[in-house]
Structures are given as structure tokens and as C-alpha cells.
Amino acid sequence: MSTRRNDQITLVAFMQASNVSVYSGSWRYPSSAGDYLDLRYYQRIARVLEEGNFDLMFFDDRLAMPTIYGDSADEAVRYGARPIKLDLTAVLGAAAAATSHLGLGATYSTTYYQPFHVARTFATLDHLSGGRAAWNVVTSVNDAEAQNFGADQHFDHDKRYDRAEEFIEVVAKLWDSWEDDAIVGDKVTGVFADPSKVHELNHHGEFFDVRGPLTVPRTPQGRPVIIQAGQSGRGRQFAAKWADLIFTGDPSQTVAAEHYSEQKALIAEEGRDVDSVRILPMVYVIAGETEQIAREKEQIFLNELVHPTASLALLSEVTNYDFSGHSLDDVVTDDLINAVSGIRGLVQGVKRHVGEQTLTLRVLANHRATLLQGPRFVGTGEQIAEQMEQWFQSRSCDGFVIAATHFPGAFEDFVRLVVPELQKRGVVREEYTGTTLRENLGLERPANLFSEEREAQRV
Fold this sequence. Notes:
Elements: E1 10-16, H1 39-51, E2 56-60, H2 74-79, H3 88-98, E3 103-109, H4 115-128, E4 133-138, H5 143-147, H6 157-175, E5 183-186, E6 191-193, E7 203-204, E8 209-210, E9 225-228, H7 233-242, E10 245-248, H8 253-269, E11 278-287, H9 291-303, H10 308-319, H11 334-339, H12 344-354, H13 361-369, E12 376-379, H14 381-393, E13 399-403, H15 409-424, H16 437-441, H17 449-458
Parallel strand pairs: 1-2, 1-13, 2-3, 3-4, 4-9, 9-10, 10-11, 11-12, 11-13
Antiparallel strand pairs: 5-6, 7-8
Helix pairs in contact: 1-3, 4-6, 6-7, 7-8, 10-13, 14-15
């Protein structure tokens, strides 16, 4: 087996600009901070992550409350199941101002936004942060989001990905519409920029008509880092073609290792360097000064904080199906799987995790809203570091997306207890080595499309 070039674990912090983390009971934990509507809350967490040499602070997003369950937001509001989602532009700006090296990523939809808007947003963030921006490309998930943007129903799966393909192609060209040396800035002659190096796109496609150029010059990274987390066959192919970071949701190391191997093969088929793309499963980390302390905290998170109805509301959100007419003890049958288009992949993943156990909606819902939705590393800093290194060295992953059980304590514990142990093992840096996110990830700065065309014409 060849030696991988990226010998450092990539660390991503999974955030939400919300009352909760991805774990929907996090707001109830006694030490969870309640000032999530204050920019200083996000700045505090960002500083902790930078102290721990994290590569990226990443914000998930939705464009609607969870309203599929019972055709109402009532239960999501009642139980705090992600009813709050702040606009990420201001949140990322606040985090950028509080840090110097930490990457800053966010989810923006290709279904309900426009390419020019997304290109300008992330190009601006990349400039103002000194080259630390990352965009998570998503196609959105349900009808509730559609209804906030003037449509009754969500596009079907293939149409969403057709649109996403054209969307990202346009965004990439907009980011390149200014060549790197376009700005002259000659105060004597009055020439600000060379118009031959600022390009219109004049794109006319199936979904978009975009003239260009972008109103933001080419950025420090050339292009912001691209994140993708699609789990379907089409989603994995899209990620293989475009992504620098691929987030996965595998329930166990066995599944993660299989997914890793399959995804790397898809990347190679696209003609890309497999070592240039990081595959990062989402995991929970519960660290304690002793193993007993960590296990006691784990039991609280597993058993006490997530209301069952909140779990069903979030299952309805992600599958675009109203489960309010079902009991938590209903068995997940083939008929139900056939009736719910968004559930098959989730069921397959959970079945691989629970084995022969009868799969009920309670089990399935808990894998969307509780600690069961991802692998857990529980114990002392040394014990957790040993588990993480084993996953990494066995090529089950290139790093981890760390999901917080509560804010900011989960990340404070990780940085205080786990990161020093990972640094002792030489798999996490002791200090940042670059100024941009791409540099810290060891990724090359992409060439400019228009500059390449110019050079090709000269040959």
C-alpha cells in the first residue's frame, strides 16, 4: 500500500447557528451556553477551535424550520428541534474577525440560491478572512424549504443534481472571471485594472443565464474550498468530481472503511489525485478526565435530553415525509420504505449498524437526532486519541467532522484533553503552517481557467 501524502488528521468542527448542535438535545445540557443569538458566542467557540488547531469551523444550514411532521413547526418549536437558523453571512464574518488561521465553511443551497449570489458571498468571505472560506454544496432536502421560496414541492433528486452541476460550473467560472494579475492600480495613468483580464461568462444553460463578470476579484485561495456530503450514488459521483472535503455519515468503522475505499475509487475515475480529497466521517467525542466521567456524561446524552417527538420531527425533515400518523414502535417495513423516497439510504445504513435487531421508527429516528447517528469516541483524552489514530492509520478516513454534544463545552474538552494526545502521536499539527485554508490542508491553489486558455492560445 502506498504511503499517503497527507499524514495529518483533518479536524472539522460541526456547527449550527442555532439553539442546538446537530445533537438536538444539546440545548438542555446544564452547561450549554444560551447566548447563541450573540455574535460573541460564535467568536468564543472559534477561538477555542483555533487554539486546538482545527482546520475548519463548518456551519450546517436549512432554509426552513422542521415543519414536515404534522404539517406544522409546533413540535420543533416546542422541543427545540432546530427551530432557529441564523443567516450565516454575519456569523462567518464574526468568526473571521476573531481568528487568524481557522477555516470558515458554510452550507449554501444550489436549489434556492443563484450562482452569482453564492460566488460573491464566498469570494468576499475568502478575501476578508485572508483565504479561509469553504462552501458546502447542497441541493436542499424537503418541501418546507421549497415553500419558503415560492414553490409547493421540492425538485426531484436527479433534477436537483442536474441543477447543482450547472450551478457549480458557473460559480467556478465566476470565481475565475478576474485573472490573478488583472488589477494594475496605476495611480499615475489612472488605469485600475486590465479589462482583457476581466471576463464575461455569457453563460446560457438549462437552469441559468449569467453574464458576469463577478464583482469580486480572484481570491487568495483562487477558489474557496469545496465541501460535499451527498450519500446517494449521484451525490457520491458529484463529490468525486468537485469536492475537496467529503463529509460522510457512516455508523461504524467497518462501513466507513468501505465507503472510504469506494469514494477514493470514484475520485480516481474522475482523473483526480485521490490524496487531494479528504474523506471525513461525522463522529461524536465525549471526553472526560477519567473514563468513568466520560461514560456518565455519555449516558446523560443518550437517555435524558432528546424528546421522542423531536426525533420524529427531525426524521420527517430529512426524509420529506410526515411521520405524525405513525407510532415510534411501528416497524419499518418494505412498504414504508417504498412509500418514503428519502428513507432507503438511511435504513440501509442503520441496518448495517444494528444488525438483526427489529428496526422500528424509534430506532431509525434516534439515528437522526441522538448520539446514535454517528460513531462515538468516549473516554479519556488518551483513549480517544488512540481510537482516532487507529481509524486514520487504517484508512477508514482522512480525519473527522467532530459533532458537539453541547456548546461550547464539547469543543473545550476536546481541545484540552484530546488534541494534546493527538499532537504527541504526531497526527495533529502543533501550529498552523499556512495562511490560507488550502495551505493548511495541503491543497494546491487551482489555476485560473481564463489564464490557462490564454496560455494555451500562445502555444
